[in-house]
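WARN no homologs supplied; continuing
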Amino acid sequence: MNSEQGAAGALVSALVTVLREVAGLSQVSDGIPLQAGDAAAVIEAGPETDWGFKGGEGAEVRVAILVTCGGETPARARLLVERTRAAVATIGPDLAGWTLVGLTMLRSRVVREAGPKWIAVVEYRARMMRATVLG
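OK structure emitted
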């Protein structure tokens, strides 16, 4: 992913990379897949707004990570959310032409879907600056 794909694209690419290492997730995608495994994560990039500053370009991006899994209780979903949050915390500042300035978890929630299925949503706000080359 390169800087021409925007702040959201750079952030989503980094999230996909780190979430593929989360134990217990069978699938990670940046859009709702046609078929998902028992425990899957989907990254949805929400609004991207200007977060510019004098002499530079910046963006604020909202992202939601949706984790679905089976189980009689929400315990497994909560465990996957904790692993997901730990993985997201490892994202470094350099993201394909952008510098991650701040990544804040806004809220999370676990709810039951139909049958013995659970969906967890973790929402983040990222603030990023376009990386510049000093010459």
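The helical segments are 6-19, 75-88.
OK
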